[in-house]
Design a protein that fits this description.
- The protein is built from five helices and two strands.
- β1 and β2 form a beta hairpin.
- The protein has a two-stranded antiparallel ribbon.
- The longest helix has 23 residues.
- It is α+β, with helices and mostly antiparallel strands and 142 residues long.
Amino acid sequence: MIKKRPENYNSQLIGDLLKEISPKEQKRTERKMLLAARIQDALDSNGMKKKDLAKNLKKQPSEITKWLSGTHNFTTETLWDLEDVLEIRLVDLGNEKHEQVVFMASITVEHRIDEPVCFPYQIDFSDSQRNYKPVSSIRFTA
Protein backbone atom coordinates (compact mmCIF):
# COMPACT_ATOMS: atom_id res chain seq x y z
CA MET A 1 0.00 0.00 0.00
CA ILE A 2 1.38 3.41 -1.01
CA LYS A 3 1.10 6.18 1.56
CA LYS A 4 0.23 9.59 0.20
CA ARG A 5 1.52 11.67 3.08
CA PRO A 6 5.16 11.76 4.13
CA GLU A 7 5.94 10.64 7.63
CA ASN A 8 8.54 12.13 9.94
CA TYR A 9 11.45 9.77 10.34
CA ASN A 10 13.72 10.15 13.32
CA SER A 11 17.05 8.39 13.50
CA GLN A 12 19.82 8.78 16.02
CA LEU A 13 22.37 8.15 13.26
CA ILE A 14 20.97 10.89 11.02
CA GLY A 15 20.80 13.26 13.99
CA ASP A 16 24.44 12.57 14.83
CA LEU A 17 25.50 13.13 11.21
CA LEU A 18 23.63 16.42 11.01
CA LYS A 19 25.32 17.63 14.19
CA GLU A 20 28.70 17.20 12.47
CA ILE A 21 27.80 19.59 9.65
CA SER A 22 28.94 23.14 10.31
CA PRO A 23 26.42 26.00 10.15
CA LYS A 24 28.33 27.38 7.17
CA GLU A 25 27.96 24.10 5.27
CA GLN A 26 24.29 23.88 6.22
CA LYS A 27 23.74 27.36 4.80
CA ARG A 28 25.53 26.42 1.56
CA THR A 29 23.44 23.31 1.19
CA GLU A 30 20.24 25.25 1.84
CA ARG A 31 21.18 27.81 -0.83
CA LYS A 32 21.95 25.09 -3.37
CA MET A 33 18.60 23.47 -2.69
CA LEU A 34 16.77 26.81 -3.01
CA LEU A 35 18.56 27.52 -6.29
CA ALA A 36 17.59 24.12 -7.66
CA ALA A 37 13.99 24.67 -6.56
CA ARG A 38 13.92 28.09 -8.24
CA ILE A 39 15.18 26.58 -11.50
CA GLN A 40 12.57 23.81 -11.27
CA ASP A 41 9.82 26.38 -10.60
CA ALA A 42 10.92 28.36 -13.67
CA LEU A 43 10.84 25.20 -15.77
CA ASP A 44 7.33 24.45 -14.55
CA SER A 45 6.05 27.99 -15.10
CA ASN A 46 7.50 28.02 -18.64
CA GLY A 47 5.96 24.62 -19.40
CA MET A 48 9.40 23.17 -20.05
CA LYS A 49 10.80 19.76 -19.28
CA LYS A 50 14.39 18.93 -18.35
CA LYS A 51 15.05 17.69 -21.88
CA ASP A 52 13.87 21.05 -23.29
CA LEU A 53 16.27 22.92 -21.03
CA ALA A 54 19.08 20.52 -21.93
CA LYS A 55 18.44 21.10 -25.64
CA ASN A 56 18.39 24.91 -25.22
CA LEU A 57 21.66 24.85 -23.28
CA LYS A 58 23.30 22.15 -25.42
CA LYS A 59 23.68 19.90 -22.37
CA GLN A 60 22.81 16.29 -21.61
CA PRO A 61 19.54 15.71 -19.72
CA SER A 62 21.51 13.88 -17.03
CA GLU A 63 23.41 17.10 -16.32
CA ILE A 64 20.14 18.99 -15.84
CA THR A 65 19.03 16.26 -13.43
CA LYS A 66 22.23 16.78 -11.46
CA TRP A 67 21.63 20.54 -11.37
CA LEU A 68 18.12 20.03 -10.02
CA SER A 69 19.33 17.68 -7.28
CA GLY A 70 20.46 20.66 -5.22
CA THR A 71 24.06 19.47 -4.90
CA HIS A 72 25.64 21.11 -7.96
CA ASN A 73 28.14 24.00 -7.81
CA PHE A 74 27.19 26.27 -10.71
CA THR A 75 29.55 28.49 -12.67
CA THR A 76 28.42 32.06 -13.18
CA GLU A 77 28.26 31.42 -16.94
CA THR A 78 25.84 28.55 -16.39
CA LEU A 79 23.67 30.66 -14.09
CA TRP A 80 23.54 33.47 -16.67
CA ASP A 81 22.67 30.98 -19.41
CA LEU A 82 19.86 29.65 -17.21
CA GLU A 83 18.61 33.19 -16.62
CA ASP A 84 18.47 33.83 -20.36
CA VAL A 85 16.72 30.58 -21.27
CA LEU A 86 14.26 30.59 -18.34
CA GLU A 87 13.76 34.38 -18.36
CA ILE A 88 14.36 34.68 -14.61
CA ARG A 89 16.89 36.36 -12.34
CA LEU A 90 19.16 34.02 -10.37
CA VAL A 91 22.14 36.32 -9.72
CA ASP A 92 21.62 39.77 -8.26
CA LEU A 93 24.67 41.94 -8.84
CA GLY A 94 23.10 44.88 -7.04
CA ASN A 95 23.46 47.31 -9.95
CA GLU A 96 20.12 46.63 -11.58
CA LYS A 97 17.04 48.50 -10.46
CA HIS A 98 14.07 46.40 -9.48
CA GLU A 99 10.54 47.61 -8.95
CA GLN A 100 8.68 46.15 -6.04
CA VAL A 101 5.12 46.77 -4.96
CA VAL A 102 5.26 47.32 -1.22
CA PHE A 103 1.75 48.67 -0.74
CA MET A 104 -1.40 48.59 -2.77
CA ALA A 105 -4.64 50.32 -1.89
CA SER A 106 -8.11 50.26 -3.28
CA ILE A 107 -10.56 53.07 -2.62
CA THR A 108 -14.30 52.73 -3.12
CA VAL A 109 -16.32 55.92 -3.00
CA GLU A 110 -20.09 56.15 -2.95
CA HIS A 111 -21.68 59.50 -3.60
CA ARG A 112 -24.64 61.16 -5.14
CA ILE A 113 -24.16 61.96 -8.79
CA ASP A 114 -25.01 65.63 -8.30
CA GLU A 115 -22.32 66.12 -5.60
CA PRO A 116 -18.58 66.50 -6.26
CA VAL A 117 -16.22 63.90 -4.81
CA CYS A 118 -13.31 65.25 -2.77
CA PHE A 119 -10.12 63.35 -1.90
CA PRO A 120 -8.16 65.41 0.66
CA TYR A 121 -5.35 62.88 1.02
CA GLN A 122 -2.93 61.06 -1.18
CA ILE A 123 -0.79 58.04 -0.36
CA ASP A 124 2.96 58.50 -0.65
CA PHE A 125 4.05 55.05 -1.88
CA SER A 126 7.74 55.85 -1.49
CA ASP A 127 7.31 56.28 2.27
CA SER A 128 8.20 53.06 4.06
CA GLN A 129 5.85 53.97 6.92
CA ARG A 130 2.92 54.27 4.49
CA ASN A 131 1.98 57.67 5.85
CA TYR A 132 -0.94 59.61 4.52
CA LYS A 133 0.00 63.16 3.60
CA PRO A 134 -2.57 65.94 3.13
CA VAL A 135 -2.60 67.65 -0.25
CA SER A 136 -4.88 70.14 -1.84
CA SER A 137 -8.26 68.63 -2.60
CA ILE A 138 -8.80 66.86 -5.87
CA ARG A 139 -12.34 67.11 -7.09
CA PHE A 140 -14.12 64.83 -9.51
CA THR A 141 -17.55 65.66 -10.79
CA ALA A 142 -19.94 63.34 -12.53
